[in-house]
Amino acid sequence: FWDGIGEAPESIPIKSHNHPESMTILCELLSTQEGRDVIAGELSRAKEQIEAGEKQIRWRYVKKPEHLLSEIADLSTEKTEYPVQDSVEVLHEDFITQDEIDTRLTRGSSFQHGQFRIYEYFMEGHDKKENIAFLKKEYGTGGSSHALIGSDSGHEDHDAKGIRLEKGSYGSPYAKVLLKWNVVEKRIRELVNADKYLTPKGKEAFAQYKIEQAEEAMRREQEKLEHGVRVECKEAIEKAVAEKFDGYTLLGDAAEGVIRQYGKERVETVLANTITHLSHDGRFSPDNKEWAKSLVPSADWQTRDYLVTSHPAVLDGFTNQARRFIERDREPESKASDSEKALVERLAEMSAVVKICGALSMKDVVGWNEDTGAVAIED
After folding, report:
1. pLDDT for 338-361, tens place per residue?
2. Rounded to the nearest 5 degrees, what angle is found at the Cα of 167, between the Cα atoms of 198 and 174?
């Protein structure tokens, strides 16, 4: 009353706040039929005043008179008491049904896509012995809880003996069954032949799985082929270094032939992979190490097959050549004249040769032949 319409009737002596005495008065009134009739009558009058527009409910959270009247009517309803037993005996099914077994078997093994692998293998038409060997390998040793549909206490374990299904607590089940692998094989074969192993949705998922498997097989095959080509590229780099470096000079076209044969990206990958693996070697320049790190961030043991085994100092010079050739091929034509380009190239080659000679502990570079690109060295 106070919260709803801002006043209380004289027949219900409560104050405007939830004082303890007001709560006590309300509880006393609600505890008797006479008191409930008094409150119901006042609520009915308040309802009529609100409907006539004479009063308004001030706050949304206040219950409407209709709701309060239904609550009071409920208090006046005669209650029926039902005796409750001190304890309830729950009956357990001391058996596991064939439906429960089939549902568990059609879920497949505990591994991802195990259901699809089993279905695919049985569709291939292997004999019983092969099927059993496959199932043992696919399932392995393990188990799971909530293994039986409709049973919160159902669990499953599998090992070399077969699949064990149980209901109840571990160690003290009230229902259990051991399905040996020959029984498992027979039932799965029956379900597959009857087209009951996969549901319609399961068949759609299986079709998608086959597509993904084909794509994955294609990707692995492409990676395998690419790996082999990178090994060939690594051998070509080693051969080019051996043929183009005479102990003093690495000729300026050493990298070009390999790049034209195996492509820019592949040569970059092989060189960067090698330098990343050998990043501890001080004979590679910091600039080449940083470049390699940007292409091959970490050394993977699976890429050790295409590590170039040429002398690191000479290989560093080869890397410089390769990077310059690739950058020139990628960048738009410079406005510089042909003579300026030639001068820059000659200076770069001379710098690379000087560095190689220094790394090989040779004392001094005493001459440069512009026609042959050779350096005269004094030991």
Report:
1. 666 666 666 666 665 555 555 555
2. 145
CA distance 342 to 338: 6
- β-pairing, 364-369 with 172-180? unpaired
The CB-based long-range contact list for 121-126 (8 Å cut-off, 24+ gap) reads 122/188, 122/189, 122/192, 122/197, 123/192
Q: Residue 142 belongs to what H/E stretch?
A: strand 142-145
In eight-state DSSP terms, residue 373 is T
At a CB cut-off of 8 Å and minimum separation 6, what does 113 contact? 209
Q: From residue 25, give the alpha-carbon distance in Å to each of 12, 22, 68, 234, 321.
A: 8, 5, 17, 97, 100
**Residue 180 belongs to what H/E stretch?**
strand 172-180
Q: Residue 166: which of 187, 134, 144 has the closest Cα? A: 144
Q: Which of 313, 318, 268 is nearest to 293 (CA)?
A: 268
d(CA 78, CA 352): 105
Amino acid at 232: E
Question: Could you give the CA distance from residue 100 to residue 150 in angstroms, rounded to a whole number?
Answer: 9
- In order of 271, 293, 338, the CA distances from 274 in angstroms are 5, 10, 34
Burial (Cβ within 10 Å: 0-12, 13-18, ≥19) of residue 143: middle
Q: Ramachandran region of residue 110, left (φ > 0), alpha (ψ -120 to 50) or beta?
A: alpha
Q: How far apart are CA 277 and CA 171, in angstroms?
A: 54
In the numeric block, which tokens belong to residue 277?
């693996």
**Which residues does residue 330 pair with via DSSP β-bridges, in sequence order?**
none
pLDDT tens digits, residue range 213-270? 999 999 999 999 999 999 999 999 999 999 999 888 888 889 999 999 999 999 999 9
Q: Tokens at residue 244, please?
A: 């183009």
> Is there a contact between 221 and 199 (Cβ–Cβ < 8 Å)?
no
